[in-house]
Specification:
Elements lengths: L4 E2 L9 H9 L19 H18 L5 E6 L2 H13 L5 E6 L2 H10 L4 E7 L20 E7 L1 E2 L4 E2 L11 E4 L16 E5 L10 E6 L16 H6 L9 H17 L1 H22 L3 E2 L11 E6 L5 H10 L2 E2 L10 E4 L6 H18 L1
Parallel strand pairs: 1-13, 3-4, 3-5, 5-8, 8-9
Antiparallel strand pairs: 2-10, 6-7, 9-10, 11-12, 12-14
Helix pairs in contact: 1-6, 2-6, 3-4, 6-7, 7-9
Bound molecules: pyridoxal-5'-phosphate (PLP).
């Protein structure tokens, strides 16, 4: 068996220890005589798995009792419509910050439910930065402010939290939740699809302040109402049991590593290694403003873009895969989530140096 360094943006690499544990527990979970996949979601074994996952997530992120943690399905994409359906209450508008492809999708969906005020946009420089807070133009009548705190495609990340006062701040953290400590109390609602940095596809995590639950219009679909899931402990219908189990193993792995502060240190070291090299050479470049660069998703280009296909082919021969940039931006992108070891980034940088020597 040989494993590659997988730089996929998602579904993405998982910690090897977690995969090994899932393998070891596959046929017989803790003496249950069956796989977690085969268990009733209402049985005591699975309930204990789900409760431990929630407790570990709360511990890692410091989530207080006035927030609910929901384990949902439908991906972050379903949250694009659930957020306005639930949070508008009696208001007719919401503020969105437009920083790239994912906020674009969130905005398009919200427009089906309300008036969207684009409070700030980085479209003028092709989404290569986060608009400074002082330039935001908010609508005082907005029900909430929505940000995409890490744009997975463009590789821009908020390294600060906007202070929006009493208006709920909603953040799509799909591609960096658990990569660093978060002050959850600054947010009304945080959501994330698990398949980037948390676990397998199929699980969507929502962390929501309790006073934002139960404000949806009466005609909302049952499954779209946060209240349904909050009141049933995310067990209104069958939850994504195996994905919750594997995410739970990832949470235990994070705790063994020392939690999110320790994880953040490693993520800073990993991303610096790559950005410092990109900034030191004329052969490649990274289009993102240095202060807004993502620690998770690093887009870069070879200045001579006719070399892209050869770069990707040679990288693959070195066991470095999934480096092709998103089809909308081209070039390359290295996603270096929690599960990417620093050796993977070192190997990538060494390969990039060698490629530069051969083709520069
Ligand atoms: C991947 C991603 C999404 C979409 O997630 P799905 O789970 O596929 O719906 C939304 N927002 C961000 C920031 C993402 O990275």
């Amino acid at each position: 068996m040989s494993r590659v360094f997988n730089f996929s943006a998602g579904p993405a690499a998982l910690p090897e220890e977690v995969l090994e544990q899932a393998r070891d527990e596959m046929l017989d979970w803790h003496g249950a005589g069956m796989s977690v996949m085969e268990m009733s979601h209402r049985g005591k074994e699975f309930i204990s798995i789900a409760e431990a996952a929630e407790a570990d997530l709360r511990e890692l992120l410091g989530v207080t009792d006035n927030y609910k943690v929901l384990f949902l399905q439908g991906g972050a994409t379903s949250q694009f419509s659930m957020v306005p359906q639930n949070l508008l209450a009696d208001k007719q508008s919401a503020d969105y910050v437009y920083t790239g492809q994912w906020s674009k999708k969130a905005i398009a969906e919200a427009k089906k439910f309300c008036r969207v005020n684009i409070a700030a946009s980085s479209e003028d420089r092709n989404f290569t930065y986060i608009p400074r807070f002082g330039t935001w133009r908010r609508d005082p009548a907005s029900a909430y402010v929505h940000i995409t705190s890490n744009e997975t495609i463009g590789g821009v990340e908020y390294h600060w939290v906007p202070d929006v006062g009493d208006v709920p701040l909603v953040a799509d953290m799909s591609s960096h939740l658990l990569s660093r400590p978060v002050d959850v109390s600054r947010y009304g609602l945080i959501y994330a699809g698990a398949q980037k940095n948390i676990g397998p596809a199929g699980l969507t995590i929502v962390i929501i302040k309790e006073d934002l639950i139960g404000t949806a219009a009466a005609e909302i679909a049952t499954m779209a109402d946060y209240k349904t899931h909050a009141e049933s402990g995310s067990m209104y219908n069958t939850p994504p049991t195996y994905a919750i189990y594997v995410a739970g193993l990832v949470l235990q792995w994070l705790k063994r590593l020392g939690g999110l502060a320790a994880m953040e240190k490693t993520n800073i070291a990993k991303s610096q290694l790559l950005y410092e090299y990109l900034d030191s050479t004329q052969f490649y470049d990274c289009p993102v403003s240095p202060e807004d660069r993502s620690r998770m998703n690093v887009p870069f280009r070879i200045k001579e873009d006719s070399l892209d296909a050869q770069f990707l082919a040679e990288a693959k021969n070195h066991g470095l895969v999934q480096l092709k940039g998103h089809r909308s931006v081209g070039g390359m992108r290295a996603s270096i989530y929690n599960a990417m070891p620093i050796e993977g980034v070192r190997t990538l940088v060494e390969f990039m140096r060698e490629f530069e020597r051969n083709h520069g």
